[in-house]
Amino acid sequence: xxxxxxxxxxxxxCKVNMSLCQINxxxxxxxxxxxxxxxxxxxxxxxxxxxxxxKATGDYLEQITKQYTFSERAGVILYDELPLFDLxxxxxxxxxxxxxxxxxxxxxxxxxxxxIKNVFQVLSSAQQYMLxxxxxxxxxxxxESGPVTININKIAVEVATIFFNEAISFVPCFKYADSEDVxxxxxxxxxxxxxxxxxxxxxxxxxxxxxxxxxxSEESFVDLNDEHVFKQFKLSELLTESKTxxxxxxxxxxxxxxQELINLLxxxxxxxxxSFFILVLFYLRRSSVALxxxxxxxxxxxxxxxxxxxWLHAIRYVLNKSPSAHYEAVFSKQFFDLNQHESLPLExxxxxxxxxxTKYQRVADGGQYQIVPTAKQKAFLQRIxxxxxxxxxxxxxxxxTKVILPLLCQMFLSNNAEAHKHLARGGQPKHVLVVLVxxxxxxxxxxxxxxYCLNLNFREEYRVYDDIFALLHEDVQLSGGAPxxxxxxxxVAAAPMKQIFLTSFNxxxxxxxxxxxxxxxxxxxxxxxxxxxxxxxxxxxxxxVFNICSNxxxxxDRPTLELYFEVSRAAYASEPCPTAQLKASGNPEYWxxxxxxxxxxxxxxxxxxxxxxxxxxxxxxHTLRHCSTNIAHDVEGYKSLIARPYxxxxxxMPGSYYSxxxxxIFLTYVxxxxxxxxxxxxxxxxxxxISFEYxxxxxxxxxxxxxxxxxxxxxxxxxxxxxxRQGLIRFLYEIILRRMEIRDRSRSVNSIDIVFNFxxxxxxxxxxxxxxxxxxxxxGQREDEIPTMIDRSFYAYTSDALSEQEFQARFxxxxxxxxxxxxxxxxxxxxxxxxxxxxxxxxHVFAREERAAAAEMGGQAGEGGGCFNVLVDLCGIFxxxxxxxxxxxxxxxxxxxxxxxxxxxxxxxxxxxxxSVNSDNDVQFDEEFFKFLCKSYGAAARDKVFFFVDNRNVxxxxxxxxxxxxxxxxLPLFTKSVVLAHDVDDFSKIWQAMGxxxxxNDTRFSIYKSGVGEDHAGGVQDIKAQALTRQLYVRNxxxxxxxxxxxIYQTLISLFNLSKExxxxxxxxxxxxxxxxxxxxxxxxxxxxxxxxxxxxxxxxPAHILVHILQDKFKRSAVPAVAEQAFKLTEDVVETIxxxxxxxxYEQRSPSGDIHDEFIRLLSGEQQSLxxxxxxxxxxxxxxxxxxxxxxxxxxxxxxxxxQLELAIDxxxxxxxxxxxxxxLPKIALGLPLPVPILSLTYALEDGRQRNINVYPTxxxxxxxxxxxxxxxxxxxxxxxxxxxxxxxxxxALFCSRFLAAATEHYRQAGAQQSPRxxxxxxxxxxxxxxxxxxxxxxxxxGQIVSREDGxxxxxxxxxxxxxxxxxxxxxxxxxxxxxxxxxxxxxIRVGANYIRQHPQYTLAALREGVYVIGMKDQFxxxxxxxxxxxxHVQYIVDEMGFVLWDRTAEAxxxxxxxxxxxxxxxxxxxxxxVLSKQEVAQNVLDYYVNHRQKLQDSLASYTEAQGxxxxxxxxxxxxxxxxxxxAPIHPAPSR
Length: 1536
Description:
Layout lengths: L7 H16 L8 E7 L2 E8 L6 H13 L3 E3 L2 E4 L2 E5 L10 E5 L9 E11 L6 E6 L2 E6 L7 E4 L2 E9 L5 E8 L5 E5 L3 E5 L20 E8 L5 E7 L7 E5 L11 H13 L3 H13 L4 E3 L2 E4 L2 E4 L3 H10 L6 H7 L14 H13 L16 H12 L4 E3 L6 H14 L3 H7 L8 E6 L4 H12 L8 E4 L17 E4 L2 E4 L5 E7 H7 L3 H7 L6 E6 L1 H4 L6 E9 L4 H15 L6 H5 L4 H20 L24 H9 L20 H14 L5 H7 L5 H7 L5 H6 L4 H7 L4 H15 L1 E10 H7 L1 E6 L10 H5 L24 H12 L6 E6 L2 H5 L3 H19 L13 E3 L10 H12 L6 E5 L6 E5 L5 E3 L2 H11 L7 E5 L8 H12 L6 E7 L4 H8 L9 E6 L11 E2 L4 H16 L2 H16 L4 E2 L5 H7 L2 H17 L2 H15 L5 H6 L5 H15 ...
Parallel strand pairs: 1-3, 21-30, 22-26, 22-27, 23-26, 27-30, 31-38, 32-36, 32-37, 33-36, 37-38, 42-50
Antiparallel strand pairs: 1-2, 3-4, 4-5, 6-7, 7-8, 7-14, 8-9, 9-10, 10-11, 11-12, 12-13, 13-17, 15-16, 15-18, 19-20, 24-25, 28-29, 29-40, 31-39, 33-34, 34-35, 41-42, 41-48, 43-44, 43-47, 44-45, 45-46, 49-50, 49-51, 51-52
Helix pairs in contact: 3-4, 4-5, 7-9, 8-9, 9-11, 15-17, 15-19, 15-24, 19-24, 25-35, 29-30, 35-38, 35-40, 37-40, 40-41, 49-50, 50-51
């Protein structure tokens, strides 16, 4: 709890309560914890001490108040303005009730009645009750006379027992009072009273225990290593609440997810309904990786039957192992037999599919099915299947996801000959379909596929998986056939079986970086078909690539950090480049180029301040509360690190933006200046490490004691002491950069790799994509012109020079049925003037739209008054504002009578919700609520709901309701839509935002854009007549054709992968910025270019592809010289272009002054400079599927079998075994050290003698996520396996003695070298010349190393007349300039091997100088040490922060308080902290040790340890030492 800020207030109350109990010497009282809205503050925890305590009630109240919005007003808890509990008494009555429901129908079942627990009673009425199920609120009225009334979200329902059909018969449920549709609720709060007759008769029920506990499923989840693994669960462990609606008159069972199937299976068991159980089990089997039925359990020699009687017969029937003619007749009717249409022509088959499709739909009020495929949709479906193009365009709102996608999946699962002939795309027959959708559409697409694809072709074996990582399971094979059950497990048959995998773009790319999946997929990719929705997003030039990386610590020294600060500060303040500071660096040219790049980035983020920059770095404790991956790691980690560079990211933080390292470094400085309050908590943690020197140099305006020990927040100090603001920022900036992880190695897959390797089909509503060769083109070894992937006849390029009439004709073709769209463009320049005040921006929009409506209506905008009711935040302005903030502004501006509800998309789960304007009631926007709106307001309902759509533009449930509303009332639900585009110039995105209205011809639009002048502000017009529309549309076509530098480079990488027969690419240039800094980038880029030339241009197929791609781009260029060269591309020209693309990508290209400059400018898109500063990486939006409370690294490797270690002991009763800790061998074993160092380093003190440190891990430390897999080698395994029984488990003392011998031998082998080791030289270093005989005049001269050739260093000397002269010298004649060396360099710290990840949490046991054992946090402690086999050898214990947890040396050693002798204050302790944790205190201690050691030792000698040992005392020591140093300057130690 302490790690999650949401619980801080609650935790404080608990601590106070515990303290009071201890004072009173009493036991802690029981209490309830509830989460409420109090005085407008959301998410406040309240502790309630009830009169009568119930643990079950307490658990339920905590869970339910977090899920639903309860509020407190005047001491009363309310929901939807209904009072539930009175908290004003000291110990209030908190009671929950049970409510019994009897069926209102004459139909009877085995369920006599149902009872619901955890029901709330309304205080103001003894007849009014409220209960919550599956995100629905049920209100119950129990009058003194008459029937009970039940309302779900204001819509009346009744408890009934319904005969749906032979398969779903006599099931207790809730039926709508005004229709025949039925709701099935599944919840642990519902108890069904079943006829008990024959309960234990095996022929009747067949079980004593609930069957759900004896069915097991293999489930995929993400482990602590962020890897996908499988674990077997009982279905009873997976149960949740759900709500399933079954539509009259067909009553087809449709579920949107596999989770609902598990819940319904449990429901069927509870109501003892065998036929319902069988039907659900059919569905569940088709969507499961592996199911196991525990028919019998063996306990020793005893065997207990768990599943018998009719239940076992039902399961065997579903598994096709026990025939039943009766069952066949019943259940075959529940499945559509598509295989009977094998010979039908495609057109007739589509008609059959569409006829079936309507039966899945709800019947509307007019007696018609709600969704009936139109003739246009049928034609579009046939065109997708038959056309040569693989991707297709259909206008926004044409039903692509809701209609076309499920129909295509059904077609794939059929055996229709003509359909499959076309789906083969000229290649092999397809039996695997991969459905790809954007991340935000995964839930919706899953719902469609599950609804329409689980009840087809009775008895045919096929599978529908909602996780692409099911491919990691051994039972999921692309080559095999239908899984069969053998001994409760799947086997594999030979015949191919159809399989559907549904996943997101990035998840599929990530899957293709797994070697195990690649080995499965590569041989069968010709039998796979990829179906992509929103292909424009899939092939977006800025979202092509997905990286999966492993990270490492950076090694920035303090001078480097200071240079980054100075360059960032100068760029941010628009000051000249700090040339003076850069001269002393190793590579001034790098820093000069970096300054130019940062200036360009700074200019860019000013232009794109809302949609781009504000998406970066503003996430803190408050805003992360809205994210689905809201875990302690996210909150804690991203308060200190605003972002990590995309090269070092496996998974994304919600909303975070990943960029190159240099951009990250600069934006860190930007956010520190613009959102300094974000770092208040980090500053509070680190302020105690501010040294006296730092205070004196940078923040002396503040009192030192107040700064280091005070409680004022960073933001408060920065406001009070403006002149010290930069000093405070510098302090935190260096801390953040020191902790930033950088890439170690990576694999990447991009969308072009998928197009090259799989047959693809797909569709989009914004058809602007680049063109690439398809798998079919490559399979045929074609060399002709690349066919277009999508119809481009409506594209309008600048080079076309179209007349206005021609342009409008093409645009009308693009519009399709949305042919009468009325739009006005409005200036959004006020956004810049409003700065960071988001609500001021929103209020400005409200006021402007009201004025416009009033002007249109003759000066008065009355109730509803034609004002807008939709706002789409396309550019992402409202990042910090919660939906409650928006609601409050709506209420304040429009009053309580204008809008009654605010529609929004939940940031956590993307569900549609509506928040009441006049209360805090926040409910789902679903069928019931839509019915309630129509029933309560009629056509005026559109004037009562304000639709607030955030920049994710998620497709919501309002979309089908828009169509229903228009059919019912003849009016659009969206009256007028405001699209906040501001700095978004991508017309595709603007059109998509407008398409949020599915009634575009009837909805009017105001598009807010920056820079809209009088020439574009032409009032409301047809969109194609607007001049700005043409400008944006043509620019969009030009950009999608040209791509950008990232897309053309990724094209080269995909061609390289194609020639190497690989899905993924492993980068050779790992960290570009480091290589630029050291000067090695040029050679590595040349080598990289050579590789691409060899594998791309050296092979005929990829070479011809590249030529065609370049020709296609060049011929449409608006630059005549480029267009003329399109068909004059010789081999030499293409090779030159390839090399220059690579050079430009890595910012190494200089202008050539010829046509190649124009080539690169075109291929770079809108990039205006040589530096790639545009945003070229997408937000990698993967959802973290479990809450990893202790994860401190974003990326970790899954341990391969070769890196895994398995140990075991045998015991009959483990619980009894653990009661004797001294003999608990597994626990003891976990604390034993492995005799192989996990960290080895060397250093040298003032005597120059090289010393070594070896750190050995405990076995338990290997269980952590702090180590790298490579550590577990054969040597490590053999150290344990060789003597597992005698040496490790049975005799820990013997094992430890062997460990000590090995550690001593390691120390001896490393040796203690008596001669000093010279500091290693490198390019860029400042040196002093010495020992020269010939050229003695240079001795003592200073210079900078600029190159190395033939074993000599090229040095550019300083001084008049020789400033530009470079002379070669031998290594022995060069000595590093002392002032150039920081503490780490002066101590000559060299890490030999390090398999520990950055920032581990650990305890460290010091055995002797140079020998340490590292364990888990708290593993070494004063309580467990007496029973540890190494207890006699451990001298002291510390943790990662420097706390001394235990110290034997204080009594036994006089040197325990010396910095140069072994003990808790020994310098080795801080060397390890610097290497492992990069703690600021470690850097400070090392600096003091190197420069002011004697004074530091004197202060330590007089230190009484009253304030504590170790890290705590350094605050006092450094303060006193610093003050003494300034009173009496200390001469630094002689340079070594």
